[in-house]
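Deliverable D5.2: sample structural annotation.
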Amino acid sequence: MKRPTLTIFYQFNPWDSSIGGIQTFIRSFIKYAPDEFQVRLVGIGDGSSLLGVWQKVELDNKSIEFLPLINLENDNVRGLIPTTVKYTAALLGRNYASDFMHFHRLEPTMATFNWSGDKTLFVHNDIEAQINPEKGNDAMLWSRFTAVHSVLERRLIRQFDRIYSCNSESARYYQQNYSQLAKQVTLIKNIVDTDLFFHLPSQKREHKRQTLARKLNLNEQTHFVLFVGRLHPQKDPILLIRAFSALSEPNAHLLIAGDGELAEAVDSEICAHNLSERVTLLGALKQEKLVNLYRSASVFVLSSLYEGLPIAVLEALACGTPIVTTDCGETPNLLTANSGVVAQERTPEALAAALSQVLQNPTAFPTDACVSVAQPYTAKAVVGNVYQQMLILWQKKNLAFPVTKVA
């Protein structure tokens, strides 16, 4: 029987330690794809890949077709020419159209305007904040060319059959600016893979914390503050270092799991505040290694300038770890009084005060309260619902095949 084909377009290599919520989102879409679908990914190679050739591969025990479009050794660091530009340029003049196509950046769709098939755009950030030069802090190249971005967006947005946004501000932005597409814009839950990220009983959690402390040659009374993400202006890790310097918690130790263009600046900031013995840089880690960090941490911290709804926040909550965040994106709307704290201002002192509030009152932020917040975002359910809608659409177009329900 013929199967519908889904082709996912994004500039990453799923077998590398590529940092980002979009990458994690796509991995979940592949992992939980029902057998009714043939899934393809147009991504990037590792420097030695044969470009432009479809390969049958396995990812999370799922058979897919993978096509590396460009080679890139480290996509965690922005080069002089943005990866999106290289990826888009390589896509021009090609045609990888299929029954369904998922895009996670707008720029590559310059090459797909005349492709036939059902097209979906996933929006992962607060678009207005992302391109705002006053908020962007050089986090996004488009913040320097907002007028050009507006023209490009207006031309390209018309090709999509639907737009899914995990950020309510972005959903509102598209509905207001493109009224003809308002019905095609939907707010979608971001996702967390609860088969991998789940909480442990308090005794086992405490054991993991002590084990990690010993591994890092720290006092067993050490409590960990965890940051997971790209070292990029959007995430503002410099603010995080300054906040940790202002934190009056002698047993607190900051773990930074990530890599990016600000790695050297972060290291310099750590030295400038004499924090070398209180901060550990772990580099880019795969999801399987992040699990134990979430379960060992007393608090997860987000210091971003702007966000959508970070998957790392959902992963931490699913593991039972409370959140401290700046006032950005959907996270402040998500948190309850006993699952996290929103810093009152974007200052080191305010972020430090929020961290202190959680560290000094651990019983006020119980594991169950954190887990319950993440529960509606289970990847299997959210992804399954999207695939179910796709299958119904495909079967309506192919009436010879009976309508069935995705398992």
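Annotation notes: The radius of gyration is 21 Å. The first strand starts at residue 5 and ends at 9.
The annotation will be released with the project's public dataset once the embargo ends.
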